[in-house]
Structure formats: structure tokens, C-alpha cells
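Researcher: Let's do a round of design. I'm pasting the C-alpha cells now; please hold your answer until I've finished.
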């Protein structure tokens, strides 16, 4: 392996590349939902030139359980009528604007990673970062239910696009792209489920290597993937196009039939949003 290739791998996993971890956390924050129209304090292009440091801690978005009710005790001999509570109304998230679907679906620097019927009535494009805790929360808590209910039934086509805010996120995306054919989505799922183990690890390289070996990588294929400069450039190009052409500023960002939404969504909220488009 050449010295330049080794240096590329070290930069990816030690923290000199795409953006600051501070921007990751800002981009993942729920405040973005309320301030979608505000001018960002740092552009993606500027952030790409900043030094990055491994995240020390990662948080997982909490899920709020649906309220439960218990029947009041009634005196013996008194007939108790069983009541059924009306389902709680789900408020739809506010759209932050729209983009042209034809332009959104034009080919980019990398082949599209999509599942579902290409002719489905609803198309969802998600821009995400592998070290974003809100992205992990969506994929760990919401995505599989949406896949079963809408994608597998032919109602939704779901597209994943890379938007890495730090070197480890870029490296994770590269490894998912280098996984055997058909293993991109399973690799993404595994990395999100184990996000705290590798994203906040002191030695990101070794942690990602162990995760990759579970997916069938060898030491050689791992190194070959992470020293692929063209692949890194293409991952960055996907991010830059999302920011420049479609206004992506935070992760996760969803385009549902061209409508722009930011932030993690529960199963109920995304289901209601999809239903409103059917």
C-alpha cells in the first residue's frame, strides 16, 4: 500500500476530513425543525474544510410511549361498560418547501441505493449521516415498520443518500458501498444498531474493522475500501449536491414526493405523512 493511501485511511478514521463533530450534533438537533428557515451559521462547503474530531459521546433519541388507560374499579354487581378510546390524532410535520422530483431523482455521483417498487405512488429520499444519533433512532425504531407496511407492499420507494458530517461517517458509508452486492442496506442497519460502539470509540479504525468483519470484510478488503480516493470523492459529491441543489442542512432530511421534512419521525408520524400522499 502506498504512503498516500495509508494517509487517506488514517485521515478518514482519525478525524481530518469533512466537518466538525459540533456540526454533526447541530445538524442532528431537533431545533433544526423549528428553525428551518433560518440561515445556517456554517455552510456545508465551509464545514468540509474544518478539522474534525471523533465524537466523545453519542445520544439516542428517545421514543415516547403511547398513553395507556386503566378502567376504574366498580362495586361488585355493577355492570362495567367497556370503553374504547378514540385513536389519538397524529399531527403531520410541517413541510419546509419542495423540490422538483425529476431533478431530485436525476443520477448522481454514485448509483442510487433504493428499495421498493420503482413505480410506487410515494417516493421518499432520505439524506443521512452515519454518526447522527437521530438518523440511528429513525432506522432503529421506525424504518423496519415502514418497510413492512409500505415498501414491501409496493406503496413506497425508499432511497438512501449519503450526507456525512465527519470522517467516521464517511468511512462507514464507504464500507457500506464496498459491501457485497445487495448488502448495502443490511450493512447500514448493522452500523446504526452498533453506532455507539464505533462512532464514539477511541480507536475508530479498529472498531469499524471489527464491525466490517461481521459483514464479511477481510483486513485487505477493509483497507482497500478506505483508501479508495474516488469513492470518498463520490460520497462527498452526493453530500455537496444535496446541500447545494436541494437545501439539505441537517440529518435526517426526508423528501416525500418532493416535499422537504427534517428530523426523526415516529412510525405513526411517518405513516400519517405517507397516507396523506397516497
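Researcher: That's everything. Go ahead.
Model: Designed sequence:
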Amino acid at each position: 500500500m502506498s504512503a498516500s493511501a495509508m494517509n487517506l485511511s488514517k485521515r478518514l478514521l482519525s478525524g481530518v476530513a469533512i466537518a466538525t463533530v459540533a456540526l454533526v450534533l447541530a445538524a442532528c438537533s431537533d431545533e433544526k425543525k423549528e428553525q428551518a428557515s433560518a440561515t445556517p451559521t456554517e455552510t456545508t462547503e465551509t464545514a468540509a474544510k474544518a478539522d474534525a474530531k471523533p465524537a466523545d459521546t453519542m445520544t439516542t433519541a428517545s421514543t415516547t410511549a403511547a398513553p395507556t388507560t386503566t378502567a376504574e374499579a366498580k362495586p361488585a354487581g355493577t355492570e362495567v361498560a367497556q370503553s374504547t378510546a378514540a385513536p389519538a390524532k397524529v399531527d403531520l410535520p410541517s413541510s419546509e418547501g419542495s423540490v422538483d422530483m425529476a431533478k431530485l431523482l436525476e443520477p448522481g455521483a454514485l448509483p442510487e441505493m433504493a428499495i421498493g417498487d420503482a413505480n410506487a405512488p410515494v417516493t421518499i429520499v432520505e439524506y443521512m449521516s452515519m454518526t447522527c444519533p437521530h438518523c440511528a433512532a429513525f432506522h432503529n425504531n421506525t424504518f423496519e415498520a415502514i418497510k413492512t407496511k409500505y415498501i414491501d407492499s409496493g406503496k413506497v420507494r425508499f432511497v438512501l443518500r449519503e450526507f456525512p458530517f465527519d470522517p467516521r461517517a464517511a468511512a462507514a458509508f464507504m464500507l457500506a458501498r464496498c459491501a457485497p452486492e445487495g448488502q448495502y442496506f443490511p450493512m447500514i442497519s448493522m452500523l446504526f444498531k452498533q453506532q455507539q460502539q464505533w462512532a464514539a470509540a477511541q480507536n475508530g479504525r479498529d472498531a469499524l474493522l471489527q464491525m466490517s468483519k461481521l459483514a464479511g470484510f477481510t483486513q485487505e478488503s477493509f483497507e482497500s475500501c478506505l483508501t479508495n480516493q474516488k469513492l470518498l470523492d463520490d460520497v462527498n459529491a452526493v453530500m455537496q449536491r444535496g446541500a447545494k441543489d436541494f437545501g439539505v442542512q441537517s440529518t435526517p432530511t426526508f423528501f416525500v414526493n418532493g416535499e422537504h421534512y427534517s428530523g426523526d419521525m415516529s412510525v405513526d408520524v411517518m405513516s400519517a405523512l405517507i397516507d396523506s400522499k397516497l
